[in-house]
Amino acid sequence: MSPEKKKPAKKPRPPRQKMPEQAPEERAKNFLEVPYGYTPEIAETEASRCLQCRKPACVQGCPVAVDIPGFIRRVAEGDYLGAARVIKSTNSLPAVCGRVCPQEEQCEQLCVLARKGESVAVGRLERFAADYEREHGDGSVPEKAPPSGKRVAVVGSGPAGLTCAGDLVKLGHEVTVFEALHKAGGVLVYGIPEFRLPKAIVQAEVDYLKSLGVKVELNRPIGRSETIDELLEGDFDAVFVGTGAGLPYFLGIDGENLNGVYSANEYLTRSNLMKAYLFPEYETPIIKARRVAVIGGGNVAMDAARTALRLGAEKVSVVYRRSREEMPARNEEIHHAEEEGIDFQLLTNPTRILGDGNGWVQGMECLRMQLGEPDDSGRRRPVPIEGSEFVMDVDVVVVAIGNGPNPLIPQTTRGLDTSKWGNINADEQSGQTSKPGVFAGGDVVTGAATVILAMGAGRRSAAAIDEYLGRPLEDGTSGAGSSQEPPADGRS
Predict the structure, then answer these.
(1) Which residue, among 312, 93, 100, has the nearest Cα to 193 in the 3D structure?
(2) Bridge partners for 259 per DSSP
(3) Which segments of 410-465 are extended strands (E)?
């Protein structure tokens, strides 16, 4: 009797592949990008981990519906340019998303492998494919629909605006993006530091959209140079508003008017957009501090703290009123900050900023906190500990507790409904506002959120605008005006 044939043992699945990066002691002194990215060999190994599910849950977790198994399969096969084409069929900014999208809370969270181990590194593979195409691609662009004869104005060149513009131009419409600043990219250029998102990457993505036919007009603050009404009364058939959340919030404590107190918005804009870190090559001053306190616990706070360190501060402290578990920043950003030597003053709340008698910051008085019952956000509410006051020795304070919507468009546009927080009221799916022909999406609608969620809103609005241009509403209404939830507590 012949012995039973044994099935060949399954080849063990490789572990999730780490991404090579600069050593903490080196990167803390420069503004070069921290991760180096995957090599082709590492990328193929990581891509081989994908199970190629018949009903991929990961796609459901992607706000722009990238065919994740499709592009990963091509990476595994060595067809890197094909992988990039698959991504770009629904995502116009893959090199950006591969760097700053919180995949761990979206597509990767739904990966089947995450149930018993580590998910496929979707974001890292997306970055690899996008970077490979930028360096080795032939510059080809996808086929566009025939010209529709319709013109759309996109106000704001951040993630929502750029995504909306890219989709609309592929649908055959003529698109002009109006940007108030001297560089296109919105928060991608003024808010996110070079070491996380090199500006050359953003410019390459903008150039790609230009190659599709998108026109970009800089130094055009709509609401000042001209209004939304004037755009509609002129050459444009529809308008998309994606002006973001650029209005900084402050604590409202004594001393916030002292020299040396920055909003994170100003601090990062000076460094990122205006290149203060290259002073005097660029004529943008920024205070070179000895000790810096950054108030807040989100990604913006991490960006500001790590920027301060690279600007030469001896000590940088993140001051956050809850514990590490409640911090809204990505774990990767917190981890990088910790590796670089950022001091975390947790369960700590500033009560006033102290001056030196000459109008400059000298210190910051704080209270220790403890966590009580959950508040409306679902997180435990920080409660002051009586008698726990202490003073931090600081000479610069950066307030990173959130931003509100840019008020310029709502203030200068007739018939545009807003919420009590100043956000534009727009239909969640279509982006239609209370004003016919005007659509809106991204942070100006939802309050400060993520790049990828803004991109998802841009995509949905592009589809709705395409429908609107092809079949105008008979009653002249927009079906909009849905009330929005309030922005999340910026202080977190």
Answers:
(1) 100
(2) 360
(3) 438-440
**Measured in whole angstroms, how far is the alpha carbon of residue 322 from the centre of its chain?**
23
pLDDT of 6 reads 62
Residues in the chain: 492
Structural element, H or E, at residue 364:
strand 361-374
Q: Are 290 and 314 in contact (CB under 8 A)?
A: yes
* Burial of 215 (C-beta count, 10 Å sphere; 0-12/13-18/19+): middle
Q: Which element (helix H / strand E) includes 176?
A: strand 174-178
Q: What letter does residue 105 receive in the DSSP assignment?
A: G
Please give the structure tokens belonging to residue 376: 């409306």
What is residue 216's three-state secondary structure?
A: strand
pLDDT (average), residues 436-441: 97
Q: Look at residue 489 and tell me whether its pLDDT is greater than 50.
A: no
Which helix (H) or strand (E) is 398 found in, with range? Answer: strand 396-399
Residue 5 binned pLDDT confidence (cut-offs 50, 70, 90): low
Cβ neighbours of residue 108 closer than 8 Å, sequence gap 6 or more: 58, 61, 114, 119, 120, 121, 122, 123
- Confidence band of 491 (pLDDT split at 50, 70, 90): very low
Where residue 129 falls among pLDDT bands split at 50, 70, 90? very high
DSSP helix/strand/coil, 388? coil
